[in-house]
């Protein structure tokens, strides 16, 4: 290849962020169609209509995306006359609705703007989509051939603070992994400009969490779009999204996410625990495995404050159940991203040492 392009989204953040929609979107036309989740549309609709009241942009319809980020739902949306009539698409929701709109707007050749109503993942900012079968089973990740993320992201912290705080909690937990996994996976490797840029930015995927996370959760519980909520939203949505957009897949994750996928063979993990929650436990295992005791100490205190899991009992797993989970962990592609061979024996040891560390720290 004789060239490559790095696509990045821009964003507006604040407790009245939708006020900036006319200034950003008017150059793209006058007719917008909103596609999103039912609850997300409900949460954002009044704020959005109020912000557009005196603008040239008219929302010609609010359409439910279909409940699953699938090509099948995408094709139904692409055939919808209102979608065809629209000059631009406003994707409103959590990850799945916005991911579905990435496919819709790519095929329908419409500009895409995203409106996250929760801060759970970096989907509103990244160009990659996680696509499911209509049954809800995961199909694959899908990347637009043009590499384009949404053109602009409108992060309304009022809407996000009004959503249940569990989304912010699990979003924080998953974001934490980005720094520790990318630094481990990139260690000793020759990095491209984009890889090095992404890994360097990754530090901001954990420092603001330790600094502002507890206060942000409390404010979210009280539906208050505070400074701390804003910092955490930027961390979960923007920083993580930027890192994802910059770095190669081969350094994107390692031990923490692999352990999560391994743990999903246990029914209690599938049924009762959230992705970010289990990944955050995996981060502590990663730090123990890699001997990063100062970082472990820092995170341990933070985890206790915000009630993230620090030991097996916190995710309802017993030591005796670990066999199939560890076996599966070692088959996950991401485990190969570590700078050394991860073995079952050492993984058991890291988990045992972490249990012991918990007993000492209390
Ligand atoms: Zn994750």
UniProtKB/TrEMBL annotation:
The keyword RNA-binding does not apply. CDD domains: GlyDH-like. Keywords: Metal-binding, NAD, Oxidoreductase. The keyword Aminoacyl-tRNA synthetase does not apply. GO terms for molecular function: glycerol dehydrogenase (NAD+) activity. Its EC number is 1.1.1.6. Transmembrane segments: none annotated. This is Glycerol dehydrogenase. The lineage of its organism: Bacteria, Bacillati, Bacillota, Negativicutes, Selenomonadales. The gene is gldA_1.
